[in-house]
């Protein structure tokens, strides 16, 4: 009950609340007895939606998208910091911020990086940086 009540305060806008913590706890208690074999939050959301019980369980219906979104946002942040630790070690501590950011993006977006053609990149770079010397 305390955790449901704690979820109430971040979802407060002025004097109004998006959900009621105590009602959320009661709704979850009722649903857990109705769905003892539910294996995931998605099972509960699908049950509420297909049974057209959104009006009966409004707090659960509001809280579940938040619950399903949080792990994704946390995981992507953790992945970024994990890659950053691999890139910026003691040997590279003098690296500029711009280079570190570029390397981090390359490491995080590894699937795109692996599909790049290095020959094309080198050719483009050489064409842009080539100095044209006129011989007389």
TrEMBL record:
Checking InterPro entries in the record gives: HATC_C_dom
- Pfam families in the record: Dimer_Tnp_hAT (PF05699)
Its domain of life? Eukaryota
Positions of the HAT C-terminal dimerisation domain? 27-112
GO MF annotation: an example: protein dimerization activity
Please state the span of the N-terminal signal peptide per the UniProt entry. Answer: none
What this protein is called in its record is HAT C-terminal dimerisation domain-containing protein
């Amino acid at each position: 009950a305390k955790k449901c009540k704690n979820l109430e305060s971040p979802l407060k806008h002025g004097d109004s609340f998006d959900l009621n913590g105590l009602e959320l706890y009661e709704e979850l208690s009722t649903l857990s007895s109705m769905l003892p074999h539910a294996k995931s939050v998605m099972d509960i959301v699908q049950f509420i939606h297909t049974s057209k019980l959104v009006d009966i369980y409004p707090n659960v219906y509001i809280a579940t998208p938040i619950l399903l979104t949080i792990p994704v946002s946390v995981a992507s942040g953790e992945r970024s910091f994990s890659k950053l630790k691999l890139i910026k070690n003691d040997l590279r501590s003098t690296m500029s911020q711009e280079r570190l950011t570029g390397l981090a993006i390359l490491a995080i977006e590894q699937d795109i990086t692996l599909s790049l053609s290095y020959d094309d990149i080198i050719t483009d770079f050489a064409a842009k940086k080539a100095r044209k010397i006129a011989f007389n």
